[in-house]
Amino acid sequence: MVEKYQNEFYPDTIHDNFIQTTFLITGGTGFLGMVIVERLLRVFDVKKVYVLIRLKKDKSPEVRLAEVFANPLFRKVRELKGEEIFQKCVAIAGDAAEDNLGLSDEVRDALKREVEYVIHAAATVRFDEPLRTALLINTKGTLLMLQLAKEMQKLKCFGYISTTFCHPEEKVLEEKVYRSKHYPERLIKMLDWLDDKTFGVMAKSCLDGVPNTYTFSKALGEDLVADVMDTMPAIILRPSIVMPVWKEPLPGWSYNIATPVGFVLACGKGIVRTLCCNKDLYVDYTSVDAIADAIFVFCAHSVINSLWRTQMRILNNMKVLQYYGEREWIFINQNLINMRQLLNPRESSQYVLSCTNVDLEDYVMNLISYFRRYVLNEPVENIPLAKRRMKM
Fold this sequence. Notes:
Layout: H1 2-7, H2 13-17, E1 22-26, H3 31-42, E2 48-53, H4 61-69, H5 75-81, E3 89-93, H6 105-114, E4 117-120, H7 131-150, E5 157-161, H8 184-190, H9 196-207, H10 213-228, E6 234-237, E7 241-243, H11 260-268, E8 285-287, H12 288-325, H13 334-342, H14 345-350, H15 360-375, H16 383-391
Parallel strand pairs: 1-2, 1-4, 2-3, 4-5, 5-6, 7-8
């Protein structure tokens, strides 16, 4: 209790980074995705959360999201913040495997205008998924999400949820990009002109030592994200085996028995009695709540570090300008003065060769207005907020 009180003196830069921000979450009805959405609503003061949801069994995205919120996982946030907190979530019909993500023009335009953070967690995690299906969802879906993110006017971070098993051929997996042997763009194009049977024949040669189509397609997704890192703010996150909740909001919670906990239950019930393994090896797993927290921390710090790098560039530029700021010169411009005198009245009014009559206040206001609207892409509606920040 004393430790908690003492911690109140420290700032929460992670929380502050997400105040009144807008997220787009894919895979929000899955195991990890549900925990991500719950944390956004309970822990952070976000403005809006778009959740991309597929139509399923004649259920609309709104109905599916309501079913998610009825899960015991959301009991705590409901008790803390009331039913109205769920109004911050907007279900949008779409599919990561469809062209244009299955989005309407209206929804796509709204996402491009509003979204600041994207967490792309949608994936098929079945190890025995046909190669074509895995590529369609895990690889092409990632490409389509990146294409959308590139058009987002306020994008601060694109978080791609990969897996620590993306390159099982590496005994030691470092925190760097490992390039695949195959080009993801080529395989994605092949989806349009090769049938399922042909892909089935290709699977063995494509995988070439990779144990399953899940890790193969997720590694290709990493390649696509790595390709855009120089032009857009994107990070790759590699959780290991995702296990039930450790601490918050409901210890022991799991989505269904299709998660690793299902295997534990099967062993406990006596359904599974033997397993081929090496008892001297260890298994790497992490609780889903710890993974969700790591996602938010890394997304926030990618922005904080970006701001720091920007500040350092500004500081370096200021050092360069310091030489000029500490000195004064007198420049003779008699030729310019003589040229002004040679111009007739019409030419003088048409061609500006003097700035002596500039209204500096009006000039600066025009400059600021232009940069707000066309460089920073800030709407006029944000001016009152900007004025409040100036007073802080």
